């Protein structure tokens, strides 16, 4: 059974913040039309090129046609159990 990774989804209004390899979705009328990894951007033209994960084709997305959302994995922060202080003494184990 695959493990699910928590994700953070952020609306992108400035294509200049996107980098090659970023995972994005393109929404139109609250539906996902494209999802894939950024291959190139032209912020001055308002376009981003992705490799669509559904069919492997390259797609050009116009920011004035789609709402662009960046998808990022959220890495949970955990404290290793061996470095946690002992509750009785307050000293590291």
Question: So what's the oligomer here?
Answer: single chain
* CATH architecture classification name: Roll
Query: What is the number of domains?
Result: 1
- Say how many strands there are: 6
Q: Span between N and C termini?
A: 34 Å
Largest sheet entry: 6 strands, antiparallel
Helix/sheet category: mainly beta
Topology:
Blueprint: E1 7-12, E2 23-28, E3 31-42, E4 47-52, E5 58-62, E6 67-73
Antiparallel strand pairs: 1-6, 2-3, 2-6, 3-4, 4-5
Could you characterize what this model shows?
The chain has 93 residues and is mostly beta strands. The chain contains no helices and six strands. A six-stranded antiparallel sheet has the order 1-6-2-3-4-5, with no helix packed on it.
Please provide a brief summary of the model.
The protein is an all-beta fold.
For the structure shown, list the relevant keywords:
93 residues; mainly beta; SH3 type barrels; six-stranded antiparallel sheet; 0% helix
